[in-house]
Specification:
Number of strands of chain B: 16
Oligomer: heterodimer
Radius of gyration of chain B: 24 Å
Distance between the termini of chain B: 69 Å
Shape of chain B: globular
Helix content of chain A: 40-55%
Number of strands of chain A: 5
Largest sheet of chain A: 5 strands, mixed
Shape of chain A: elongated
Structural class of chain A: alpha+beta
Mean pLDDT of chain A: 95
Strand content of chain A: 5-15%
Low-confidence stretches of chain A: none
Number of helices of chain A: 7
Strand order of the largest sheet of chain A: 2-3-1-4-5
Chain lengths: 158, 517
């Protein structure tokens, strides 16, 4: 089976399992993004048909929410907090360091496909600012050095 | 004899290495042939001491912190299982000043118990509120909540009892309870602590709300940024179903209440209740016009209670001990307790639950210990990204909804973010506009376009271009946002912007005398 055939059948299984929930669209989109890493454009017509929506309506929902993406992410997505509490603890300098270290800006993926960088507005880790999240792991009191150590660790374990 | 050791599973504690510490303790105990019972508790909320390891002794629980994996062998050498002396020893946990001075009602169990143990929950006062509620009429339950004086802890401070009464009195075959767990305000983490540290209290609160107003279905709208909370909640809900605390015929009472967690997707505006309901319905999170009120026509057009996590988590203690008990804490029209969150540049960040009425100064210095950097505190932002910045001259304001309103500020969800004197307040004002621009749902023009223009004007001001023209323009723009926006996102962005301008004009390149609003 081709890769696109695989993602499409995965998406169809998720749609079939969730479509009868009240307000099913967000659960379906989460399900697809959890399984595939993003919401492929080819899954939009299937979602629209299952929920009796237009493709434009489905697209409108995907584009409204920061978290949903329609392109594949890097192997790891780094969510770096930009909110006030983190700024009060040096978050702005950390942001510059992170961008320089990875060589990318927010919403971009490194050329080797390893890391995507996304801003986040609060991880609820404000007592341990600055904060970031990689995958489901949360990091507190992040410094330029500790960020580099985490990234170097991830690169070393691959 | 087995030794009981506690290491928090709270995600902030984990972000500082709590999982590695727990693994190191298990490993070291095995190496030494010691029998231990390792419990992953919630956090006590003293985050400068996390990871905070506790050991049960004859005298009570003794704390050590902050512990890193490398400290673990030394702790065993010091016989910490018996409360032995060590450089990281903090004495009895509940005698630590920061903790001892608090009035923990909503947070009574958090940090003490295993969050996922229903037995622990019930042994520590859990489900007594529901038991009482099952013996009361719906009107009596609503009256108890009204008597408690509880006001919405999400920020709007609307009386919870009145909201419930409206839903109770609106006839409908289907009604809903929604818990707003879209805690997006920077500097706030009390909802997260409740969900991760005591999920059953939220489940109990929502069940009581369902009983009170005749709603059989509840939804918890949780932000995607809280993956650990999502896991804990789902596990607790599964246990509650299994043990007859959710589902049909709850505890043999004949009452039904179903509960499901739904995840947000990174939109701040979905913390606004009507936008949240649109999102739950599977739509873009566009704010709705009010009226109709959600209590009359809410989720899927049905009468709906929408309450914040802390509001709902405060209901069990009110039903357990009575509305009067809760109302006796606090001041003025702000009754009960508020879990304050100290964050940002502060030496002792954490969770402080106290009756309303403490001043900011007491919180910042007596609890918080001043700034983390040791530099003077220049400003604090209270109530999230839409809250005003307060200068030192306003630090004697008591934490009270009306006292804050009187100085054109908000208590909001009780988050306090501290900034030292290195902060540039014009940059913070620009950030507020930028945040509004990023998060605007786009439905109303003042918020959608005003925030974009706001960023441009702030850029001009920061670069000292045409200040004579741009400062009045900024005020004019804020006036439009304040009075013309559909919801609090556009309507309150002027709070941080104008408070920064009024209190710190020098950062905007203008003379203090020129700022009379």
């Amino acid at each position: 089976m081709t890769e696109s055939g695989f993602t499409q059948s995965t998406a169809q299984e998720i749609i079939a399992a969730l479509k009868d929930k009240p307000g099913a669209l967000l659960p379906i989109l989460h399900g697809i993004q959890d399984a595939i890493g993003y919401i492929p454009a080819e899954s939009v017509p299937d979602i629209a048909t299952a929920l009796s929506l237009s493709r434009a309506e489905v697209h409108g929902v995907i584009s409204f929410y920061h978290y949903f993406r329609n392109t594949p992410p890097g192997q790891q997505t780094i969510h770096l907090c930009r909110a006030e509490s983190c700024q009060a603890m040096g978050g702005r300098d950390l942001e510059e360091h992170v961008k320089a270290k990875l060589g990318i800006d927010f919403h971009e993926t490194t050329a080797d496909g390893k890391f995507s960088l996304e801003p986040v507005y609060c991880l609820g880790n404000c007592a341990c600012s600055p904060a970031m999240q990689i995958g489901k792991e949360i990091f507190g009191r992040v410094s330029a050095d500790s960020f580099d150590a985490v990234i170097n660790d991830i690169e070393a374990t691959e | 004899m087995s030794i009981t050791i506690y290491v928090p599973c709270d995600s902030s504690a984990v972000s500082l290495g709590a999982n590695r510490v727990a693994a190191a303790i298990t490993q070291e105990a095995a190496k030494r042939g010691l029998d231990i019972n390792l419990i992953r508790n919630g956090s006590r909320g003293m985050y400068w001491l996390e990871p905070l390891v506790e050991v049960a002794t004859d005298k009570g629980r003794v704390a050590y912190g902050p512990v890193q994996p490398g400290d673990v062998p030394g702790l065993f050498d010091a016989d910490f299982a018996q409360g032995g002396a060590h450089a990281l020893a903090l004495g009895l946990t509940e005698e630590i000043d920061y903790f001892k001075k608090q009035q923990r009602l909503t947070f009574a169990r958090i940090g003490k118990t295993d969050p996922l143990s229903l037995t622990d929950y019930i042994d520590n006062g859990g489900y007594r509120g529901l038991k009482n509620a099952l013996a009361m009429s719906q009107e009596e339950i609503v009256q108890a909540v009204t008597d408690s004086g509880l006001r919405g802890r999400g920020g709007a401070a609307f009386p919870t009892g009145i909201k419930w009464k409206t839903v109770l009195n609106t006839a409908s075959l289907q009604k809903y309870i929604i818990c707003n767990a879209d805690e997006g305000d920077s500097g706030t983490f009390s909802d997260r602590m409740v969900i991760e540290g005591d999920p059953f209290v939220l489940i109990e609160g929502m069940t009581i709300a369902g009983l009170a107003v005749d709603a059989t279905q509840g939804y918890i709208y949780l932000r995607i940024e809280y993956p650990h909370a999502f896991e804990v909640l789902n596990a607790a809900i599964a246990t509650a179903y299994k043990e007859g605390y959710l589902g049909e015929n709850i505890q043999g009472s004949g009452n039904t209440f179903h509960l499901e967690v739904r995840l947000g997707a990174g939109a701040y505006v979905c913390g606004e209740e009507t936008s949240l309901m649109e999102s739950l319905e599977g739509k873009r999170g566009l704010v709705r016009f009010k009226p109709p009120l959600p209590a009359i026509s809410g989720l899927f057009g049905k009468p709906t209670v929408v309450n914040n996590v802390i509001s709902l988590a405060s209901v069990p203690v009110i039903l357990d001990k009575g509305g009067d008990y809760y109302r006796d804490f606090g001041m003025g029209r702000s009754r009960g307790t508020l879990p304050v969150q100290l964050a940002g540049n502060i030496k002792h960040p954490g969770l402080v639950e106290l009756g309303f009425g403490l001043t900011l100064r007491e919180l910042l210095y007596e609890f918080g210990g001043g700034s983390a950097s040791g530099k003077p505190i220049k400003a604090v932002q209270v109530g999230g990204p839409l809250g005003a910045y307060l200068p030192e001259s306003q630090f004697d304001t008591p934490l009270d909804y009306e006292a804050f309103a009187a100085i054109w500020a908000v208590v909001g969800h009780g988050g306090i973010v501290v900034f030292d004197d290195t902060v540039n307040m014009a940059e913070m004002a620009r950030y507020s506009m930028e945040f509004c621009k990023e998060e605007s749902c786009g439905k109303c023009t003042p918020c959608r376009i005003g925030s974009t223009r706001g960023v441009e004007v702030m850029d001009d001001i920061i670069n000292s271009r045409n200040l004579d023209k741009n400062i009045p323009l900024l005020r004019d723009l804020c006036d439009t946002l304040l009075n013309g926006s559909l919801c609090a996102l556009g309507g309150m962005t002027p709070y941080p912007v104008l408070s920064a301008l009024n209190h710190f004009p020098e950062d905007f390149g203008i003379d203090a005398k020129a700022t009379a609003a």
